[in-house]
Amino acid sequence: MSAISFEEVMFTVMTATQETFKCYMNIELFAGQVERKVAPVDSDVTGIIGVAGDRVGYIIVAADRSTAQLVAREMLMDDEPDEDSIRDAIGELINNIAGAFKTKYHSQYGNVAMGLPLVVSGQLRTVTEPPDEGASMNVQCKGVTIPFTNKDGSANLKVMVYM
Q1: Is 161 helix (H, G, I), strand (E, B) or coil?
Q2: What is this structure's pTM?
Q3: Tell me: domain 6-125+142-162, CATH 3.40.1550.10, correct?
Q4: Residue 87 gets which letter from DSSP?
């Protein structure tokens, strides 16, 4: 049995994101131009989940505050979600997206597992200091960033696949 291709991973995550928004929130998302890199982004709430098996890496959802609030309002049916509810909703969102990935590839390939979601809130910024000269970590993987928005522009997020 052949390994999962990166393109399969990318399109599965793209479809899972759109289907999750449609099924749970009745929001139709449109994917923008895929960037063939994973770079730090400014976001207010970020959900991260690890994937292991034939492909190892992370699936990451980064949202601004208004999109995170929209996700919480729609998923939790709460008109004024608090910070904990917003983080819970983003955690549930990334869990659903990664769960769709796991379900598809576990049935096809058998060797797929995922970790628990990690949600970080607050502005994430790029660290601009150069790395230590003694640093010797070499990570070889492929990554993409997929921007999504809805028709009226009220939902804007980026889903990153890093494998």
Answers
A1: strand
A2: 0.84
A3: yes
A4: H
